[in-house]
Amino acid sequence: MFRFDSVTFLDILRVPSLMIGGGRVTSLLGASGSGKTTILRMLNKMVSPTAGEILYHDRPLREIDSVLHRREVCMLSQTPVMFEGNVRDNLLAGLLFRKAPLPEDTVLSETLDRVHLNKPLSEPVDKLSGGEKQRLALGRVLLLDAPVYLLDEPSSSLDENTAVAVIEMIASCVREKGKTLVLVTHSAAVAEKYSDDIVEIRNKVAERRSV
Amino acid sequence: MNGIRELTIVQVALAYVFVLVVLAIVRARGIRREKEILLASIRMTLQLVLVGYLLVYIFENPHPLITVGIILLMEAFAVFTVFRKFKGKLSGGLKRVIALAICSGTILCLLYFLLVVVRIAPWYDPQYFIPIAGMLVGNSMTGISLGVKSLLEGMTVRKASVEEALILGAEPREAVREIINSTFDAAIMPTINSMLGMGIVFLPGMMTGQILSGTLPTTAIAYQIAIMFGIFGSVSLCVILLLQLGYRTFFNKEHQLR
Question: I want to staple A6 with a disulfide (CB 3.0 to 4.6 A). Which of A52, A63, B8, B47 is the partner?
Fold first, then answer.
């Protein structure tokens, strides 16, 4: 699905050769600041490689319309960014940006249940904690029902039990629907338990390692 | 109506009493602003005397090239004033947009106002062209300055929201919609407020000047209403052009934030 050919990003990251398969769960492992987020941002076209080429379905990313690509390859940032308004406004934000049909409130409530967020849709977002915002942001991208998900540490602000439940929900949802997931995690245990493939970044170089 | 009461040099000099009183007060209170007050007073006097003689010459010798030259000078002054105000903060692209917005917005409104509303003849009549151009360009420059300030602040303070919107698949224009709307508000609110207060809170300068020079108040008011709409149109058009073209300079062709 994604292929990296001699990719470099400034002097912080090199990806000599890498394939990320479709319909699979791939984890990106590496120390803090090693360039994991940069890989996700390159896959989402929020930044472009300074050298080399990334291909998506055998087409160079630079030839693909960025906005359409981001609607298909959906990314969740590690630090959740909330828009002004309440929980409902934030859940619907992605769909509104895409001018997609809006679901009923029952669907929104189900989404909150899936991400273990027990809050009313009318709750103002500035009353949510960091972990609650992270789950709301996750619910927002799950509603988009994209074929490819890029999740940057989706459980970093959650307590251990909630983190496990959320990761399991994401992994099973992705597998059931045959979607592709690229997951940034700092936890080797999470990567090994839920991934089909693992990519590790060491000394600024990203390479596949055995699961 | 009575004609204008001419002011002699002595009478004008008597108005300097205001400056002397303020100078005495700031000196007594130890506010070190004497130099600035004196400089501003003398500069204003010299500038206006020079402009007065220049305008007398231009009105007596009207020529299309002189009128066009003066408009171009005003436009250039307005553009560089905005550049200077935001020195070091403007990209090359945004500078080009500012210049285009000020020049095209004011010139379009000026031509409509003079040729369609007032219907001056000849089209380059400096007696109308120059003062009305001054009002449109001056007010539009202020509107553009407020717009640029608000746009730069919005793109800095709300950078994370803009980026999140892009990540979620928004077109750049959707990602900056809130910034654009609040910038438009910030840029045109002073013009709207001055329209609201006009005639009640203050009498505008152009109207007062016309009345003092012997024009019927009804005629002066008709001009004032028309020029206020002209100013409102010019400020709005300049700011709309700035925003519609300006936001694009913050993104590259891959729709990524620069």
Answer: A52
Structural domain for B111, as ranges:
64-250
Are B103 and B121 part of one and the same domain? yes
Number of other CB atoms surrounding residue B7 within 10 Å: 11
Q: How many domains does chain B have?
A: 2
Q: Are residues B47 and B169 in the same domain?
A: no
Instruction: Please tell me which residue, A73 or B207, carries the higher pLDDT value.
Output: A73
β-pair partners for A181 = A25, A149
Collect all residues from A whose CB is shorter than 8 A from any CB in B.
44-48, 62, 66-67, 70-71, 74-75, 77, 79, 81, 83-84, 93-94, 97-98, 140-141, 144
Considering B10, B45, B61, which residue would you say is the last residue of a domain?
Answer: B61
pLDDT at B206: 80
- Among B219, B217, B230, CA closest to B117: B230
Residue B173 lies in a domain: yes
Q: Of B61, B89, B105, which closes a domain?
A: B61
Same domain, B38 and B106: no
Position B258 in a domain: no
Q: Are residues B231 and B156 in the same domain?
A: yes
Strand runs (DSSP E) across A143-196, as ranges? 148-152, 180-184
CA distance A161 to chain B (A): 28
* Predicted complex ipTM: 0.91
Buried b (16+ CB within 10 A) or exposed e, A81-90: bbbeebbbbb
pTM, entire model: 0.84
Task: Give the mutation candidate from A81, A83, A92 for the B interface (greatest B CB count, under 10 A).
Answer: A81
Strand partners, B202: B198
Which residue in B164, B165, B255 is closest to A66 by CB distance? Answer: B255
Under CATH, which number does the domain A2-209 receive? 3.40.50.300
Residue to mutate among A66, A70, A92, A150, with most B CBs inside 10 A, is A66
Mean pLDDT for B131-159 is: 94
If you measure CA to CA, which chain B residue comes closest to A142? B168
Pairing of strands A51-56, A2-9: antiparallel
- Residues A110-120 have pLDDT tens digits of 999 988 888 99
Domain range annotation of chain A: 2-209
In tens, the pLDDT along A9-30 reads 998 888 888 899 888 899 998 8
Calpha distance B10→A154 (Å, rounded): 80
Nearest-CA distance A210 → chain B (Å): 31
Do B87 and B193 belong to one domain?
yes
